[in-house]
Each structure stands twice: as C-alpha cells, then as structure tokens.
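hiii so my PI (J.) wants the whole complex modelled not just the main chain, which honestly fair. so below is everything: two entries, each one labled with what it is. i double checked the lines twice but i was tired so who knows lol
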Amino acid sequence: MTTLLDVRNVSKRFTMGGIFGRKTIDAVMDASFSLSSENPEIFTIIGESGSGKTTLARMILGLEDPTEGDILFRGEKVDRHAGRAERLKFMSRVQPVFQNPFEAFNPLKEIERYLESTARRFLGTSDKAAIDKAMDDSLQKVGLSLKEVRGRFPHEMSGGQLQRCAIARALIPNPPLLIADEPVSMVDASLRMSIVNLLKSLRDDLKVSVIYITHDLATAYYISNRLIIMQRGRIVEMGDARTVLDNPEHAYSRLLKASVLSTDHAGAGKLETDPGMLDLANDSVGRAGELVARPDGRHVRVYA
Amino acid sequence: MTQENDIILQVEGLKAYYQMNYFGVNREVRAVDDITMTMRKNEVYGIAGESSSGKTSFIKVLAAAIRPPLRVVEGTVKYNFKNGPIDVTTASPEQIETVRWKHLSYIMQGSMSVLNPVRRIGRTFQDFAQRPLGLSGRAFEDRVVKHLARLNLPADVLKAYPHELSGGMRQRVTIGLATVCHPEFIIADEPTTALDVVVQKEVLSLIRDIQKEMGASVVFVTHDMSVHANVADRVGIIYAGRLVEEGPTRQMFFTPKHPYTAHLVASLPRIGDTQQRPALEGRPPNLADPPQGCRFHPRCPLAVDKCRKEVPPMIEVAPGQRSACWRWEDVKPLVNIAAPAGAMA
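here's the output for the full assembly
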C-alpha cells in the first residue's frame, strides 16, 4: 500500500497582534491521518466554524505552513516555499474547489478563460485544439460540454452549473486528489444533490480521492467513506463514516448528530436540544485528552 | 373553516414585476406572478424557493418595501392589524410608518451586514426601536435589557460592537431588534442560513418560543426544507414567481402533490439512509422570459402536452392542501421518507 497523502501530527498556531496584547490561537492541534492511493475515497472533515477544518485544508494545499508536523504527498513534503516548477507539479496533482462559485469566478470574464488558462499551464502547450479538447474532456466529466459553456459569463449560469465548471477546472490536470471546501453550501437545494452525486461518481468512475469539508452531517453520511470530526482544532472522533455517524461516541459528535434537523417528525415542531448534551460537549473544549482506538476501527478522544 | 377575524394576512392575485426602461428598451421581470394566500393569527408559514424564484421579491412586498423598479401591477396585500386593516400596496408612506416595527417586523438575512459595524448594539436599538416604542431614556433601556434577557443575551451586548459577538449572538441580536416592539407579524428571511448546525437549532427554537410567547404570526423564508419541517405549521413552495403548492407541513412532506415539492423533499439526505438520491436536471427558468404553460414543465418528469400549453390553476387536492399541477393525482413521494426510523435514534 502506498500513501497518497500523509498528514503527520500537524499543528497550526496563529499569532495576532503586535508586541502589546499578543494573542495566539491554536487553529489545528496534532492532526494525523492518511489516504492511500489504491483505494480512492471521499474523506470528510466535519466541524463548525472555528474548528480548524479550513486551516487544515489550506495546509494540505500548501497555502499555509504548519507550525509543527509534516504533510507528505506521495512521500514528498508539501512546501509552499519550494521552487516554481515543483509547486506547479504539486498543483497539478492536488486541486481545490471552493465554497462559493459566484466568488470563485470573475464576473467580468468568460468562464472558459479560466478553464483555458488552467489547461495552458498544466498541459504546457499553446495548441488551441489540444487545449479545447482538454477543456471539453473535463467538462464532459461533470456533465457539461464546451459548447454549452463557451462564451458565457458566470451570471448566466445557475449555482449548480457554475460549481460543476469549478470542478471541471480542477479536473483538467487529472489530479488524484481534490480538496472541496463546503462545495454545496452555496448551491440551491434542488441542485445540491447533483453536485454531491457528482463527487460520488468522481470517486467511483474516475478514481479521484476527495477531501470533502462540510458541516452537513447528512451529505457526509451519504457520500463519505471515512471522516474526522473536529472540535476547536482537535480531532475528537475519526473512523468509518457510517460506523461513526450511526452511533457517535464522543459527546461533541453526539451533539452534532442531535442538532441535525430531521424530517421524520415534520410538522411536530421538535426543536429542543438536551442541555446536558451541550454542557458535556462544551466540557471537552480545551482539554487535551488522547485519541484511543476502539475495536470497531474508530478513534475517539478520551479524557483522563 | 377560518373565521374572518382570525385572518391576519390576505394576499390576492398579487403580481409584482420589475419594470425597467433603459434607452427606450422595456424589460419586465415577472418576479411575483399571481400569488394568492392567507395566513391565520399565531401561524408559522414557511416559504421555500430557490434563489431567483421570486421569494425575496414576494417578501419585499409583504414587508411593504416596494421600491422601483419593483412595482405591484395587480392584486392586494391586506393585513388585519389590531390598529385596523391596511393594504400595503396602496397605503401611503405615513400609514406604513404607523405599522412598521410595531405591527409588521422583519428579521433580516446576514446579521453582519444588517448591524452597523461602527455603532454599538445599544445605539442600533435606539435607532430602530426608540421611536416606535415611544419610551425615553431609562425606561427604554430597561425594556431592551429585559427583552435581551429573554433571548439569553447579557445586558453587556448593548455596549459591544457587532464584530465582538459570535455569529449566533449577532443573529439573536437581530431577532431582538425585530421583536422588541412586540409585533403581530414577523417576516424572517433566511435567519439561520449562515449558522452552524448546533447554533442553527438554538436560533430556530428561540424564534419558535418568541412567536408562541408573543402570539405573533411568522413568515419563515428559507430554501432548506429540513428547517421548514421543524418550524413551520404550513409550507408554501414558490417556483419561478408562482406559488405551486401549499399545505400543512406534515402533508407536504409525506404526501406532496406537486412534482417539485416531491423532489425537494426527496433530495434531503438523511443519516442512517444511503439510498441513491435523485438530482433534478436543468435550472430554474429566467423570469424575464418564463416558459409557457406550467413553469416547471421543462424539468418535470411527469410533464405532458397540456403542461406545455396551459397554466395549471391552484386547486384544493386534500384538506388544507392546494397544488398547481395538472397531474397532481400521479405525484408520488420519490423516496420513502417515513422509512424505518430505527437508525435515527
């Protein structure tokens, strides 16, 4: 088994302020996990805002230096200070998809210009026909075609279509790993599932691994293989998605699951959160504890 | 069924269009096209619709914030407030002034952009509420502090700036602003969209509690069907400027009679359930040039020739449930959402 991505004891500390009133924030503390290259999977990072999930993703993309620990991609260290050629090589293998497609695309540029510049860079050619073919191929993968997209501006497309274009752009260099930071939260309800199903088919048909960052437990359950749940920078539970979400063990994971609005009692107006649960979950904030393996394969943080 | 004096809002045949005229070219966007609905007192009415479905234009009219280029072309929006009935489509600005905040109030989306970032929360409260309440100085402050305590906010937030508060607290402050005058009618526009799951549930139950306590009616707008399932008494679905179905929440979820509703309900994934979820193809139509006939027909799996030509009327299909579909009898729930609830402990 070879590893695609190896995150080893990574921590990130942000320092704010000057000499006076300096504050430090531990955004990510001691995170470790790895993805294998043989079995492409959807690996989900769940957490609320401020849990460090986006910081972790930025470090994997090499946009941020870890304060401690290493991130290895195919055995090589992810380093944003590496030379230009090396960065490009890395970027052709790990591609991001961002949250809001309307902000990711410049409203004044045609969408194809983005696809074109990505193709030009990663194919290393300026042959029009080759670039068009690469663009069309990757648009086909997301259920669009170059003919539909050519000459159109972002405002002429729906959120779902635009997010597909963003994914198509990321697919141009055929990366083995995509990092999708809340790719569906800005997409309309009726189009949301088409993006989620698309991520699923990327994994099953194209063998692309996806790191899927979200706070939506229901879609995470629907598509992911494994997941980690983060609370204020710490991984509190990690393991097989179905095992963990069917029966979460850590107090915070249980709170998250209980907070998901269910439609089972539609119209009954059930909204109470058990206050004991909230206290229990808040109790673990800021305590180090230790990740312990359980017989069913999951890891849970326990506190002495 | 309902008594006359029990009704707080009556919308009849409302058409509100954006009419623009640039360089001699007329452009008309039919954002609200022939919506008829009523609301009883003490009711939470959920409005679901995608972006650019016209739901924001609809609530702009409800909130009496009709500014050009948005114009009411036809129809009436009648409120039956304690201080007398009012039709906001024809009322003068002075008349609207008498009901705003005291009777008709609005919880806005995006608490960061609603609150003035360079003004303390207390000052914002003064700007909003001091005049409608007609209280001065100490009495006003007492009232506000008491109200904030009910929202589980400490009195200190009055001295804070918006950026010093967390997202959940800010949203509670905007709810406080909207409810401090004890309005009879509250319009809530996506109040929880930007919030995390735990906080979202807190804020929703807060809105529900406040509504029960004050006996207010609430129009709750969001595209998230799982929110409607837990908050609304009745749900109305807007598609391309038209109300396509409305009914009691339970019926809407378990026996939808419009294919669009059936799709919206079916596309919600659930924990403990991994069956393949269908995705709806196509995109919402452009309201400047909507399709003929039923506006949903280009995306509808049930569409027949009639749907392409004739606009289906809104008819009663079950007690309290109305649907605008020629083939409502053939609409079946797409996935069984009442599946064995064992996994959902």
